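Q: WD40 repeat domain-containing protein, please. Structure only.
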Amino acid sequence: MADSEQNFAELEEKINYLIETIHQLERRLIFVEKSLQQGNNLIDTDAVSVTGSLERPNIIKINYSEPELVELYNNDCSALFNKVLKVSLTEDSLLKKSSNSIFLAERKKGNYWIVATEDDNYWLLPKANLRIDTYNYQTVKSLFECDGYEVNSDSEFTLIKPATVSLAAGGEQWMLVEPGRLNFASTSPSDGDFEEGIEETPIPKLLHTLTGHTNSIRSIAISPQGNVLASGGFDNTIKIWDLQSGTIINTISGYSRFNSVAISPDGETLVSGSDHETIKIWKITNGKLKNFLTGHSGWIDCVAVSPNGELIASGSRDETIKIWNLETGELLQTFTGHHGAVISLVFSPNGYVLASSGFDNTIKLWNLDTRELIRTISGYSDLFWSVAISPDGETLACGSIKHTIRLWNLNTGELQHTLTGHLKEVWSVAISPDGKTLLSGSGDKTVKLWKLSTGELLSSLDCHSKEVYCVAISPDGQTIVSGSKDQLINIYQLM
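A: Structure for WD40 repeat domain-containing protein:
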């Protein structure tokens, strides 16, 4: 019985293919006849134009980024109905008679959609409400990675990444360039799976909204003891807060914007970087200035303190990274290599590696023992605003101006995942102490929580009215904090 149903499905696909081919021929004949009657130039009217790349004049181009398209498809795919081209696999690709390449052609009842963007990208999506079952799974699998699919079950899915296609020579078929990715959620988990899901999926509850800054909050840091929060703002102040109660402890005033703050492992010292080209070291308990470090010739965009509390790293618009002795203020090393401002820094948990990102669209890894460059991650057109390293030292997370978060293997430099879901640039990323959860803040005004191992989106918080510039997670992993251009700090407890 199953074989008969499968044969029927294949026969139906072939019949649809033949019917659509006949319709295409009919449309061409009608067009040629009308054009000849009107004396029109056939080539100018319906030919595929070549302007550096092949185009399809009959596809409405949309002005969406890839994350925006994914968000729209998963939440309201009906908005795409009149902007797509319906396609199915060609007969040769369906029966695997052609080369290793996979081709699709326009079909009136096609199971897939092609969407074109104004920057000449072509994305392939499953049609709305496509049910994936035993009979069409192999076809779907040739176009999309299917995470969590269970054989012999009709499964709903979430689009994680659209497939990429290009127009083949002749303009009648589309060739698969890069497979997409679908995620299948289990609809009937076992009791054990349900308990595990509850344990691994944090549910944020708003505890406090802190007010006091009078301009954008650009950086936040939580003390390793988990009792103190520091926030640096464009209002020329640093504010020290009690993390549990949300009450303000102290305000440190400066003469320029504070771009970055970091707290030492003992919780006693605060380090700040500002537009004043100096690094300042403060005593947290009373807000008194302990020391200031000079040597940079540009704004200080980022500072970090090593896990052992001995070193400060600073990144500047003078395109250098400087390493200082925290206790004495002595300059130990200057790293050069970025060709643009250095905008984010993070020490590895063992303190042997420093990761940096810059305006030159590169990420660099530095060996603090040998004081040499280990690796440069480049080749991407992304500007990475923020970098974070997992507690096991294996994963490097980077927030991108192109709305994505990229996860690399820190040891090999291999790209592991690209997380999509934000609709604007990702300003800040942080990783939980247990290494399970990634936190991100974006220009789309949201804070998102992700499962680090898979890139799965766990939760999204519409918590601010303007861009979220900075996020942090407490040492016990139970509290998350976000700071925004709206001058507010939100503190959430993870339930």
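A: Brief note, in case it's useful. Residues 113 and 125 are 5 Å apart (CA to CA).
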